[in-house]
Specification:
Helix content is 68%, strand content 0%. The protein is mainly alpha-helical and 171 residues long. It is globular. About 5% of the residues have low confidence.
């Protein structure tokens, strides 16, 4: 069913919930109560620290983007490493200046690149920050670069292990 596919895609992208029209009053009330209870919780996690249920390196997905060619994937991941260096600098500058538009642009681009190389956690985290930037709600700006740095490093470590350390990740 189409609405179930949309619902699943939204949840996979990091949304907490999804409602469809026509709205039923009891469903809306339940969702609002659940959201406000979660928001009031003292153990509420930040967008950067909330767990992401995804593989760090989804090799089958990444190979699917390059026609199953392992050598080509290696080259694409090396290019992603160079792009990450540039995107990271854009992000640092955007965060320092409070430019939500530039944060959105950098994280949106990073999310797309991450999907192409199978960096699923990086992609989902980038989409979270992209959504926050689009909403103008980036009060946790300092976390963005730190969280993405950590996940990008975890991804590169997994990718390196696939190629027995033969990836060239220097920018």
């Amino acid at each position: 069913h189409a609405s179930q596919r949309i619902h699943d895609k939204l949840l996979a992208a990091g949304f907490d919930s999804h409602l469809v029209r026509p709205l039923e009053a009891h469903t809306l009330v339940r969702e609002i109560e659940q959201a406000t209870t979660t928001a009031a919780s003292p153990a509420m996690q930040t967008p950067a620290s909330a767990p992401i249920d995804a593989p760090i390196f989804d090799l089958p997905s990444a190979l699917g983007h390059v026609g199953g060619q392992d050598g080509l994937l290696k080259v694409v991941i090396e290019a992603f490493a160079c792009d990450w260096t540039a995107k990271r600098q854009q992000l640092v500058t955007a965060v320092a200046s409070g430019d939500n538009s530039a944060v959105y642009e950098a994280t949106h681009s990073l999310a797309g690149g991450a999907a192409n190389v199978g960096a699923m956690v990086v992609g989902k985290l980038a989409r979270r920050f992209c959504s926050l930037a689009a909403d103008g709600a980036l009060e946790l700006r300092k976390e963005i670069v730190t969280a993405l740095d950590a996940e990008v490093l975890r991804f590169f470590a997994k990718a390196q292990s696939h190629w027995n350390g033969a990836l060239s990740l220097a920018a």
